[in-house]
3-dehydroshikimate dehydratase (Microbacterium salsuginis), 1224 residues
Amino acid sequence: MRTSIATVCLSGTLDEKLVAARDAGFDGVEIFEPDLVASSDSPEQIRTRAEELGLSLDLYQPFRDFEGVGPDLLEQNLRRAASKFALMNRLGIETMLLCSNVATARSGDEQLAAAQLRELGDLAERFGVRVAYEALAWGRFVDGYEQAARIVRLADHANIGLCLDSFHILSKGHNPEAIETIPAEKIFFVQVADAPLLSMDVLSWSRHHRLFPGEGGFGLGAFMAHLVRTGYDGPVSLEIFNDTFRQAEPGATAIEARRSLRWLEHEASTFLGASGGRAARMSVTELPGVRPASEVAYVELRTEALEDMRELLGQLGFQSQGRHRTKSVELWSQGGARIVLGRPRTDAPQPTVAGIGLSVPDPGTALRRAIELFANEVPREQDAGDEPLVGVRAPDGSEVFFGAATRTQPPWVHEFGDPVAGGTPLIERVDHLNLAQPWQHFDAGVLFLHSVLDLQTQPSTDVAAPVGLVRSQVLRSADGIVRIALNLVPSGERGEAILPQHIAFAASDVLSLARSARERGFRPLDIPANYFDDLQARHAMDPLLLDELRELNVMYDRDESGEFLHFYTPPIGTVFLEVLERRGGYEGYGALNAPVRLAAQYHQRRHAESSA
Amino acid sequence: MRTSIATVCLSGTLDEKLVAARDAGFDGVEIFEPDLVASSDSPEQIRTRAEELGLSLDLYQPFRDFEGVGPDLLEQNLRRAASKFALMNRLGIETMLLCSNVATARSGDEQLAAAQLRELGDLAERFGVRVAYEALAWGRFVDGYEQAARIVRLADHANIGLCLDSFHILSKGHNPEAIETIPAEKIFFVQVADAPLLSMDVLSWSRHHRLFPGEGGFGLGAFMAHLVRTGYDGPVSLEIFNDTFRQAEPGATAIEARRSLRWLEHEASTFLGASGGRAARMSVTELPGVRPASEVAYVELRTEALEDMRELLGQLGFQSQGRHRTKSVELWSQGGARIVLGRPRTDAPQPTVAGIGLSVPDPGTALRRAIELFANEVPREQDAGDEPLVGVRAPDGSEVFFGAATRTQPPWVHEFGDPVAGGTPLIERVDHLNLAQPWQHFDAGVLFLHSVLDLQTQPSTDVAAPVGLVRSQVLRSADGIVRIALNLVPSGERGEAILPQHIAFAASDVLSLARSARERGFRPLDIPANYFDDLQARHAMDPLLLDELRELNVMYDRDESGEFLHFYTPPIGTVFLEVLERRGGYEGYGALNAPVRLAAQYHQRRHAESSA
């Protein structure tokens, strides 16, 4: 599959955009006209620069408001087109994008539009270029791809074809199936974009909320499968604009973009299935398959407050397994939950939740898949005799390691000395991680987990914090073994008040655990009395249970399938812990309780500040 | 008019919210349930605290999903309501907001809903409280205020009335006129919110985009006038949530909120007009009227780079009038454009464009209006013999001063010594200011200029910068004498690359000015050759004019009514200057050129960085 990206997707100068596209391994770019107009390089210099970088210039875009106009305007429009065709000759670009008329069309007569496109085709022929006509979702008369295809067929000119853009097709709810009826030679160009499923005017949706494939809710696998079946084998290009990418560093955005296309290729091949599509000329290959992780083998925590964290883990019933025989990290465990604990590393900045280890059937395949998805491998510091683990870095700087699944505990555990015998573990395993993402990395984080770990995205929720809304997006494996919530934290001056990361452990009996932790000196996050009064009002609570929750600061939720009990530790640095118990089939995360918890944390911080 | 504000409008703990509301002079607050639930204070403590602060607790909100349900659920709902009524008794709150059922209603039968509300009314009566029923715009069966009013009439219970919320009414496009048919005693509560005119699902619009009155596009003056005519004289309360206020500092938000209600009261009185509304019991008084400014008397610039700015002003043909006789500022002038120039003040942080002076018919009245709108007065450092000027501080920290309009130049000019005779001035006056606003202050800035200076908001535009979108909102006087563009600059890590402030001067002949400035050593911002090629493609340009534009780096725009020529200076610190010429009736700002200018500035900065 030939990959391309529109320069509008990336921030910076045109040259910065070209370099970022090259560095991420794109085959070509679309030149977005305003980027050219604003560039201090001449068209010839840009052409030479792209050649040096090994990038093809696949498309000049956009040309607007051409067809369906009166004779006077047609003449002006042809003059405009001629000057752009001359410019394309200077750039060495063969294809121009023509958007369906938004502003100046006076008629929706398809014969008229076709006749005018035929004139444009004659002009294009003289310059040796061609025109890809695209139905904008908000076109004045032409807003569907089947309509655009009809007009192109009527125009019947070798230099006039179509541009298909997944956004314009799927945002209108149009069925992409009819793509298969379009002759491949009439598809001059293809743009792909994803988007969250929003209900708003399609122009604002397009301008502010496009996403890279795999980050939104569009059915892009099916779209691509239809395209491949036509026999199209031109570039598949990204045209994404949203308020985040416009500001983000172009190098990172280009990698994210490239990952999204590799994922999309995989999705297409899955959709094509065994039948393959006999007309297919575009090669779309699957990613190495990952089989689900059998457990979260460990979570790595890096904090300066080692002593406080040790005390807290001890209070919660974790046992220290001792230090690693060669590295300065220590292992704490309880049941199947393991924390690798150390001080922050000095060589590379990492979040406090610095890494996660997954036990998978075939670590080598998992790594190969990640690398095919443009993840950077992180070699484990491997000492003699250490178990081999392989890993990659996530967009937020944390690490994901893969180890071989075994029937007993992971073999690397023995590198920390012999397990200490302890009481009956009440904590059974890591239930989920909750990781704050800087706004620049939120969608990239979703794509990374979705594509590399094959986790499924759940509907996102907004949680009201005392100082802003937190957008929370859970990704999980089908069996619920791996669950990661990514949180988009407000970037405002007071956004830092929201504690950014936490680890939630699943316990068999959270009330017993809370009680025994208290006997070991633990003080949970204080939950206000009003919360428990409100619980009583909302649910007909068993008064004995309510008293116990209140006494132990344990929060509660309930749905049709079960119950949820959970408590929080105070923060240690920028991380805190949660212990939870799922009763029956409860699969949520206590979303109704999150604002109360955030307010309690905010209150505690303000209290600590004012008494400091 | 009794004023109130929902605690959800303000960030922080409940106590921080109450203090902010008191400090801004509100009469009361609505208690938003999640704020109570998350508070560590008991209901009795909150009641006492509000009494101490002199705030009435006007409403408990929201109660949800009550009416239109089956018998089992009705019983549960009455139990829920009883526990909330008991809580309201503890808080001393008389009125509860009931939102129309979104989730659990099984029937839209108005008789059924009314019968169930009547049962709720009986229960409320026993607790000595009352219920204000509100039609949510996205209610399952009840989504209009006229429908809610019918149900309340059918319920026919003294303890059941209505809550009217301008957002739910105006977002649906419902005509507010029928408000006048509702008996005043059935209107238990009124909430007002403004919003930008967006086309999106009404729930997201409501959750993320509400604005204080005067900041959006709703016709709130008419809404209020209808309300006043009913004879309602209860609280008028703000219930606003948007992603900005949730993060902003609560004290500043509360002042902005209070200003919006004062403006709204004025609007209502204007709409009521002489007729007054005979039933009116609510007092709504007009603001002191302002008459339009006759000129921008001066702009005050505070910069460390005094020498560079002096050189630049000289190159543009400004004459130095010398230093102020007692203060360390100097005056530069040309035609009717005056710059008061000095170093940054050390006593209070100010933007580089630190102030603006307006010549108005009656400075005292202008000041009184501003103060009635909760603006803070800034006393001019008044030395013996100085002309009196009065002023206030804008939300971004800059100052607005009012001086008496005269036929000649402002009398304070003589405090700078005698005017220097110069050549023929090509610059005639200040055309507009372009002021970047931090995201926390953007809407507040709009409200300030709109209400205090009576400037009218123009449709906002988005401008693509190399590192993010800039939202630009022009406010102007009807005669075009005062024009201020507020820009919402992206807050991202790279957002600072956008130059934040500029002053635009109107010239009689911008080409001559550019030429003579060049002779004085001026170098304008360099505009790329591609831009002029594109101009040629877009407009059939006179080749001689195009050559001159290109030579002098002057940008160009055209619309049906005229032409626009303008050039930019390089930045000096965080400010730059623009000189423009309007030909014919052109009233715009060259929006199409803004991305090219922003890119050229970005390019220049990157170039300077890389050669540094």
